[in-house]
Amino acid sequence: MAGCAVNVKALRTDPAYKKLLEEQAGIVVAESEFKFGPLRPTPTTFFFEDADFLAAFAHENRMKLRGHNIVWHRQLPVWFESYVTPANAKQVLVEHIERVGGRYKGQIHSWDVVNEAVQVSDGLPGGFRNSPWQKVLGGTGLVPTYIEVAFRTARRVDPKAMLVYNDYGIEGEEEASAKKRAAVLGLLREMQNHGIPLDGLGVQSHISAVGKDGKVPMYGEGLRAMIAEARKMGLKVLVTEMDVNDRYVPAEIGARDSAVAAMYGSYLGTVLEDPAVIAVLTWGITDKYTWLNGEDSRTDGQKERPLPFDAAMQPVAAFAVEVKALEVAPLRG
Ligand code: G3I
User: Fold this and answer.
1) What is the mean pLDDT of residues 278-301?
2) Strands 162-167 and 200-203, how do they pair?
3) Could you identify the atom of ligand 1 that is nearest to the CA of residue 5?
4) Spatial separation of the C-alpha atoms in residues 179 and 100, rounded to whole Å
5) Catalytic residue among 148, 241, 304, 322
6) pLDDT tens digits, residue range 139-169?
7) Are residues 223 and 187 in contact, defined by beta-carbon separation less than 8 angstroms?
């Protein structure tokens, strides 16, 4: 199953983008509109128009719909810090899930229930991120209280949705990735030990064609081992946010596209070896709307080309490589 994240504003306004999605995406997820901040203008009100728009688009086009995300340390509303306290945090979280999960009940293939809860450098036991949710509803257990509450509530509210823990920086061979991977797997194991409902691991896969050091990064043994471990725990694995930045590839476009395509090929070849991997989503579909171009990341001022379609919505080499990788992947249930 393959698809991408959607820029909902562009979906409303750009017919060529809408057409490309209709032609290419089997599963979609909103880049922002299902997040806590965008959905919650005030503590007592909800804004569903944009999320509903994507849900309707997915339904009309028989696409699967992912929910991203319920709990995250970013894109929280401005009122969060002053309003949410240890005394009311659980109630705020449960009510949020009841309203949002309840509204889309039966329509969601999988929810990223908790996103990016591990940040080893924050120094907390278990490697947990010292996030706004951790501060008000972290507790002292091996599984932070907010994570337990979020997954249990999500299961109660929408029992058919696959419940996923999603994170980044767990793909590579370098030490930081290995440590983060270990902390994430530790969390998932503890969740299972505590009987907390969990169905999948989301591996974001924001990766690089070439690293800052000029070398091609390695995605191999550690990644394979993590996916195998998740499979042995009975979990599915989803590549949830893949893109390949070409920030450190020299300027010539052909060379950049080849480097990006080569990375798509080797990365997808590696992850799709394992039958636990059931979905591949890129974080966007066209370079016209990639988040990577929100910041001027290339020192030569050129825009990045990290996605299967370029800014003119023409397929680049990475597209053919992605299609091929999905075609030749061993069948899975
Ligand atoms: O919609 C408002 C618009 O009304 C306002 O005028 C404008 C001014 O800044 O902001 C718009 O909101 C932006 C939103 O994207 C929608 O485009 C936010 O500022 C901007 O911060 C937000 O960025 C998103 C980012 O998450 C938030 O941290 C990116 O689009 C989105 O691609 C990115 O996605 C994350 C995943 O959720 C988790 N994994 C990493 C990934 C990339 O950072």
Assistant:
1) 92
2) parallel
3) 32
4) 33
5) 241
6) 999 999 999 999 999 999 999 999 999 999 9
7) no
Domain-wise residue ranges, the chain: 32-198
Q: Which of 116, 171, 229, 322 is catalytic?
A: 116
Per-residue pLDDT band at 77 (split at 50, 70, 90): very high
- Asked if 35 and 68 touch (Cβ cutoff 8 Å), the reply is yes
What is the CA(186)–ligand 1 centre distance, in A? 29
Buried b (16+ CB within 10 A) or exposed e, 44-66: eeeebebbebbbebbeeeebbbb
Mutate to test the pocket of ligand 1, among 291, 292, 293 (most ligand atoms within 8 A of CB): 291
Structure-token pair, residue 58? 């997915």
Contact 314, 37 (CB under 8 A): no
304 is catalytic: no
22 classed as catalytic: no
- At 333 the pLDDT is 63
Does 50 sit in the ligand 1 pocket, CB within 6 Å?
A: no
Q: What is the pLDDT of residues 314-324, one digit of tens each?
A: 999 999 999 99
Residue 250: partners with Cβ closer than 8 Å, 6 or more residues away: 256
| Tokens describing residue 95 | 């009510």
Of the CATH numbers 3.30.160.390, 3.30.40.10, 1.20.1250.20, 3.20.20.80, which one belongs to the domain with range 32-198? 3.20.20.80
Does the Cβ of 91 fall within 6 Å of ligand 1?
no
How far, in Å, CA of 78 to CA of 37, rounded? 8
Closest alpha carbon to 244 in 265, 228, 226, 224: 265
- Tell me the whole-structure pTM to 2 decimals: 0.97
